[in-house]
């Protein structure tokens, strides 16, 4: 499964960048409106987290370690003989990508610093510049990879990675807690709207359900 993981990662990165070159109207104002109707205020969450140093540290570190969590989900199940969990994880990612791609293309947005009009940090400025460059038709060169706003793939990967850890008794509940922290951190760090997180969570649930059915059917009743 590991070679397929590399292929899938390359395809996802390239197709996401290509989708970002399409010039459908940016949805930042719409996503803020959705958040307001849901009672989610990203700047207020950021301020609250910043006022509680321990909470801020935990959430910021959770966001920073999300890639390591994903890497663990990629390698740990196959290395420890959990082949079904590994197969389900990769099928889930493939399905999630297929579902998400038209959403990324049709409903682009920059990030909540645009919709909520707060001061972005240096990486968010680079992200915005990359998105604007892609929308002008440039797909070559060293562009920042964070071009997907909705759905939140940090949320998607947090959920599916936690699910991949479920066969391991000692990791099961810590993985769930860590996934929740990552989902919250996507907003407290100012990188995602609440609607991004909700959509990423639903994408993970739907993709996992489809992947589970596919893997179970392929393996048969005996799980062979």
Q: How would you concisely characterize the structure shown here?
A:
The protein is 74% helix and 0% strand.
Write up this protein.
With about 220 residues, the protein is mostly helical. The protein has one domain (about 25-135, about 145-220). About 75% of the residues lie in helices and about 0% in strands. The protein has 11 helices and no strands. α9 packs parallel to α11. The longest helix has 26 residues, at about 195-220. It is globular and about 50 Å long. The mean pLDDT is about 90.
Strand runs, count? 0
- How many separate structural domains? 1
User: Which structural category do the helix and sheet elements fall into?
Assistant: mainly alpha
Low-pLDDT residue intervals, each spanning 5 or more residues: none
Percent range of helical residues = over 70%
Oligomer: single chain
Mean pLDDT: 88
Strand content: under 5%
Major sheet details: none
Distance between the termini: 17 Å
Backbone CA Rg: 18 Å
Shape: globular
- Helix-strand pattern: HHHHHHHHHHH
Contiguous helical run count: 11
List keywords for this structure.
224 residues; mainly alpha; single chain; 11 helices
């Amino acid at each position: 499964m590991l070679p397929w993981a590399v292929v899938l990662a390359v395809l996802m990165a390239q197709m996401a960048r290509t989708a970002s070159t399409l010039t459908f109207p940016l949805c930042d104002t719409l996503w803020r409106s959705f958040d307001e109707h849901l009672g989610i205020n990203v700047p207020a969450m950021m301020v609250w987290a910043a006022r509680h140093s321990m909470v801020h540290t935990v959430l910021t570190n959770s966001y920073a370690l999300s890639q390591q969590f994903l890497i663990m989900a990629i390698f740990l199940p196959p290395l420890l003989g959990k082949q079904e969990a590994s197969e389900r994880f990769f099928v889930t990612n493939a399905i999630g990508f297929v579902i998400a791609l038209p959403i990324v293309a049709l409903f682009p947005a920059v990030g909540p610093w645009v919709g909520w009009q707060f001061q972005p940090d240096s990486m968010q400025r680079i992200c915005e510049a990359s998105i604007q460059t892609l929308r002008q038709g440039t797909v070559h060169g060293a562009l920042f990879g964070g071009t997907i706003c909705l759905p939140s793939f940090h949320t998607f990967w947090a959920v599916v990675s936690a699910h991949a850890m479920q066969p391991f008794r000692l990791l099961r509940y810590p993985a769930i807690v860590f996934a929740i922290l990552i989902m919250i951190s996507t907003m407290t760090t100012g990188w995602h709207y609440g609607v991004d997180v909700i959509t990423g969570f639903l994408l993970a649930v739907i993709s996992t359900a489809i992947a589970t059915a596919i893997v179970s059917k392929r393996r048969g009743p005996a799980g062979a």
